[in-house]
Specification:
Distance between the termini: 18 Å
Low-confidence stretches: none
Strand order of the largest sheet: 7-6-5-8-9
Bound molecules: phosphoric acid mono(formamide)ester
Structural class: alpha/beta
Radius of gyration: 19 Å
Mean pLDDT: 95
Oligomer: single chain
Helix content: 25-40%
Order of helices and strands: HEHEHEHEHEHEHEHEHHEH
Amino acid sequence: MRHLMSPMDLSVDELEELMNLAAKIEEDPKAYAHICDGKILATCFYEPSTRTRLSFESAMLRLGGQVLGFADADSSSAAKGESVGDTIRVVSSYADICAMRHPKEGAPLVASSKSLIPVINAGDGGHEHPTQTLTDLYTIYSLKGGIDHLTIGLCGDLKFGRTVHSLITALVRYTDITFVLISPEELRVPSYIRDDILSANNIPFTEVEKLEDAIPDLDILYMTRVQRERFFNEEDYLRMKGFYILDKEKMALARKDMLILHPLPRVNEISVEVDEDPRAVYFEQAKKGVYIRQALILDLLGLTK
Ligand code: CP
């Protein structure tokens, strides 16, 4: 039995297999419509979500399976003090696979150690969000035709953004990737990403503050939201919130084939006027999240064909 806690749980070859399977599902969804008949996915979400929870549920339903779960901690027995370990022991009797989101870093890992079914980390605090990374990689793979030889700008809250941490960790294994890390001083990537992942693997990267300086060189611009829920005080959040706003004027500086990705939700960091730009692929990215999660569910349940 396998769990998914981090993108590093999957080798580059395994990622390739998953993306190939996702592409087949995307091309011919009917061929996979009953492969999970009789299977149940539990979504245990202790923190808010739209895309991750609903795309997991959509993925299982589109495979012919069923879903159950809770969307916030207060509607579960966590509100009475139950541990994630006890919860997953019980959920193991009700479902065949579980996607869990939790505000505490490492909580899905603790759950996986007690679980009798595969557990997928659907986001743990400011730590990792591996299925968002699968979505991001699959989007790049589909729309750019591969993941090598790219200059990738990551912009916004690089300190608390778990999607950024997981994506960098996964991308350093590909060939000829250059990172441009665009953030205010206070929201730079944690030192473990800079030192233990980028520098330790000799990955070229620069850290800049101005988006306008970086955007002309990018193949991919990965925008992120400043995460209100991770700030200790509202004043700091409000100061940082309007730091980056991608608008038509900045897009005029970008390459014609640059893609804009965003894990969503967006607050104000991408102006809605950019949505009509063919380079804005963030809604397509959210859609592709369903196909890659279908592929992941099949893989973890041992149902790949
Ligand atoms: N991208 C993402 O994790 O979105 P949700 O918080 O809506 O699940």
